[in-house]
Amino acid sequence: MSEETPSDILIKATLSWWRALYPAATGYRGDAGARAELRRAGTIMEVVMLPAFHDLLHSAKRKGVAVGRLGDARIRRLALAVAVICERRDGDAGPKSFARVLGSAAEGERPALSPLRFQSLMAALSRGGDGDEELSALRRALAVVKDVDFNVAGLVRDLIDFTEARRIRWTFDYYGTTREPAESAGDDAHSETEETV
């Protein structure tokens, strides 16, 4: 069994905190005020200044995350993920990725999010500014698929650590292209050589 990474712990803490914002069948009332504040926040800094965001940081610290060592960029990415998932009540165990749901369409029909809007979303995510443009683009995309189940845990992971590999995977997921995972970096280099010969 592999050991959890700090990112894994942060993601689990975030999902646990997110679920606690909503009422539960057990009679727990949730936190409607925090949900409303998070949905109203128009910028990443507004999210960071909210008590609910700091509740998440305290919870993550209790679970073993070295919150004091999180850099500014990581805090902004976490705030982005939090603001986006608070637009959605459930769906954390769905089998499809967020990008796959955005591109899903029946044969001959248009995808939920048009290719042009998807390209705009990816451009916003790629620029890596202060996060405000990303927040707006992600909220618009989420509104399009608000009733479709997708893997919220995967979205949180992607937004917190939006690497080049994840950017590429989002594009493949959106277009429904199947891609075999690379076994190793050496295999990637070898297969690229074979393809160009």
Automatic annotation (TrEMBL):
A Pfam family matched in the record: CRISPR_Cse2
UniProt superkingdom: Bacteria
Gene3D superfamilies registered for this protein in UniProt: CRISPR-associated protein Cse2 (1.10.520.40)
InterPro entries xrefs: CRISPR-assoc_prot_Cse2, Cse2_sf
The name this protein goes by in its record: Type I-E CRISPR-associated protein Cse2/CasB
Organism annotation: Rhizobium daejeonense
Lineage of origin: Bacteria, Pseudomonadati, Pseudomonadota, Alphaproteobacteria, Hyphomicrobiales
